[in-house]
Amino acid sequence: MNQRRARRKPGENRERLIEAGLTEFGLFGFHGASTAAIAARAGVPQPHVYANFPNKHALFVETCAAAAHIVRTHPDDSAATDQLQLHGSEPLTSGDFRTSAQRAVLQAISAVAIPELRDDLLSLLVPLRNGLGMERFVRDYGLASTSLIDHALTLR
Questions:
Q1: Segments making up each domain of the chain, as ranges
Q2: CATH class of 12-155
Q3: Which of 113, 81, 77, 90 is closest to 19 using CA atoms?
Q4: What confidence tens digit (pLDDT) does each residue in 79-126 have?
Q5: Which of 51, 66, 139, 141 could staple 145 via S-S, CB 3.0–4.6 A?
Q6: How far is Cα of residue 128 from the mean position of the Cα atoms in its chain?
Q7: Cα–Cα distances in angstroms (integers) from residue 148 to residues 144, 145, 151, in the given order
Q8: pTM for the whole structure
Q9: What is the pLDDT of residues 10-52, one digit of tens each?
Q10: Three-state DSSP string of the chain
Q11: Cβ neighbours of residue 16 closer than 8 Å, sequence gap 6 or more
Q12: 8's torsion region: left (phi>0), alpha (psi -120 to 50) or beta?
């Protein structure tokens, strides 16, 4: 007999997709990640991706915004033993969660060269760089990262 899963709360699939996007986009970048893999990691059917986001571009930008928020709000010295439960997934330590977010930010930095993503990503990355301060941003993402952002700003 087919068992139905419990109904999710409104917005829960969207949150799951963004959380899955942190991992998939963080590991494979914008072009390398697939919406099918993101949906599978989130535990939702692939059509739900497009029910929650108009396209992959929008999912990527929302994921990068979440990543920037995590990087700003989870300082380096957060206790690695803090457990974060992501909607039924295996618990992650705050360090793992922050690492996934940092990888997604790095992918956003590299994707800033893609013309159709540039403006959306710059609107996330410039405030992140300013908010963290240049010293911390360079320490976390390298001098080449800030150079990529500066170059993209000249292309606007």
A1: 12-155
A2: mainly alpha
A3: 90
A4: 443 444 444 444 455 557 788 999 999 999 999 999 999 999 999 999
A5: 141
A6: 13
A7: 6, 5, 5
A8: 0.82
A9: 678 999 999 999 999 999 999 999 999 999 999 999 999 999 9
A10: CCCCCCCCCCCHHHHHHHHHHHHHHHHHHHHHCCHHHHHHHHCCCCHHHHHHCCCHHHHHHHHHHHHHHHHHHCCCCCCCCCEECCCCCCCEEHHHHHHHHHHHHHHHHHHCCCHHHHHHHHHHHHHHHHHHCHHHHHHHHCHHHHHHHHHHHHHC
A11: 42, 43, 44, 86, 87
A12: beta
Residue type, 60: F
